[in-house]
Amino acid sequence: MYEPTIKSDFFVIKALEDGVSVIGLTRGNDTKFHHSEKLDKGEVMIAQFTEHTSAVKVRGRAMIQTSHGEMENS
Ligand code: TRP
């Protein structure tokens, strides 16, 4: 049986330009957008993967920190 868990790991996204989107994708059989957060330059979002969110898409220039390392997308 599928046991949803809230992952304790946090990840950090810092917007390096205005209008960065952080898009949450659903967990389970369907992979759909369920939330889109807009960040302006300098804004930081701290988030987790949860029972509802299995993947995150970041659109725009941002610094992303995870337990796997740090990366900048452009
Ligand atoms: N309600 C969402 C959830 O509990 C909030 C959320 C958590 C979220 N992590 C996210 C939204 C990452 C976007 C991206 O899953």
* Topology, number of strands: 7
The CATH topology label is Immunoglobulin-like
How are helices and strands ordered from N to C?
A: EEEEEEE
Alpha plus pi helix count? 0
**Runs with pLDDT <50, length 5+?**
none
Characterise the protein shown here.
This protein has 74 residues and is an all-beta fold. It has one domain: TRAP-like (Immunoglobulin-like). It is 0% helix and 57% strand. It contains no helices and seven strands. The strands form two sheets. The chain has a four-stranded antiparallel beta sheet, with no helix packed on it. A three-stranded antiparallel beta sheet has the order 3-2-5, with no helix packed on it. A hairpin with a 6-residue loop joins strand 2 (20-26) and strand 3 (33-39). The N and C termini lie far apart (40 Å). Bound molecules: tryptophan (TRP). The site of tryptophan has 10 residues, from strand 2, strand 3, strand 4 and strand 5.
Concise structural overview:
By secondary structure, the protein is mostly beta strands. The chain is built from no helices and seven strands.
List the helices and strands and how they pair.
Layout: E1 10-15, E2 20-26, E3 33-39, E4 44-48, E5 53-59, E6 62-66, E7 69-73
Antiparallel strand pairs: 1-4, 1-6, 2-3, 2-5, 6-7
This protein binds tryptophan.
Tryptophan is lined by residues 22, 24, 35, 37, 47-48, 50, 52-53, 56.
List keywords for this structure.
globular; 0% helix; 74 residues; binds tryptophan; Immunoglobulin-like; 4-stranded antiparallel beta sheet; 3-stranded antiparallel beta sheet; mainly beta
